[in-house]
User: Fold this.
Amino acid sequence: MMKGLKKWRLFSLLAVMMVFLSGCGEDYISALKPSGQVGKEQFNLLLLATGIMTLVIVVVSVIYLLAFLKFRRSKVGENVIPKQVEGSHTLEVIWTVIPIILLLILSVPVVTATYKFADVAAMDEVDEAGNKTALTVNVTAKLYWWEFEYPNQGIVTAQELVVPTGQKVYFNLKAADVKHSFWIPAIGGKMDTNVENLNKFYLVFDKESADLKDGVFYGKCAELCGPSHALMDFKVKTVSPEAFDAWVANMKATEGQTASKDSTDLGEATFANSCLACHAVSGVGGTGGVGPNLTTFGDRNRVAGFLEHNEENLKAWIENPGEFKPGNLMMNPEGTAPVYGDLTDEEIQALATYIMGLSVEK
Ligand code: CUA
Assistant:
């Protein structure tokens, strides 16, 4: 009976693991299916390290098994003491040199790649007119959302990073409050965002995200940062260079866009009264917003970074953001009510319609 139970337990554990692990390998999120030069090279290093470790395990296991079988008491007899080896020069050299060689095979490519991926010298290169030639994005991580500024284009967005395919995109990474970590698993390894210093690296995006399941790559915060750390997601839309230029132009065209308290549209007026102090609706302008820039909200893939993108979820979010992301700044410090106070159902509906209509792609 006990034995049967144990077997059943093992079986269900394996079954659960299979379901769990089958989630690996989705090309919009998996580091095992890299979609860019950096991710691919890092994946190859992973394979190299795994290969070396497997080789060591196999060789040690085989030697162990051979010794185990060869020197069985039943085989060699009761009173046999095998040959005692001590101070063997040859053996000592062998088991010192082999690990050194293995470590060299592993460390040389790893160190080389580490320096290569941290080479951001091209960030400062300029063309004849003095314009920066590389695409740079300034990433600021905040509790619990992401701000993306394109300093050379003079635009800023949030929660959904838009980048062109087929070129190096350089990142300046920092945090506004506590330590977070910027990670797009399918594109490359994570990098911490710190409050006290700037981290820099580059990534390359090979594939246009429109073909992916949700039309975007998934990005995560990879550093425990507070109660809503697990929900601090962002998305990455990768588009052709032409489509990227068009997007930048559309973003620039939103210069000066704002919401008016006198608007006849209840949604816009409510936004102006309750939201505008923290959320900008123009893609041109400063960073450092208290809340995410909402210029492209209607184009986004998620509400609050993780909820399905529809008006119902947006309304629920506006009504009680603390229920979805505990500790977020839309709630008062006690976490009991939104900072903008209670809105009527009519206002929330109008507000949701207005925010969903904010778009540079439609
Ligand atoms: Cu930010 Cu975890």
Summary: The pocket of dinuclear copper ion is lined by residues 141, 144, 180, 221, 223-225, 229, 232 (CB under 6 Å). The chain has a mean pLDDT of 91. The longest strand covers residues 135-142.
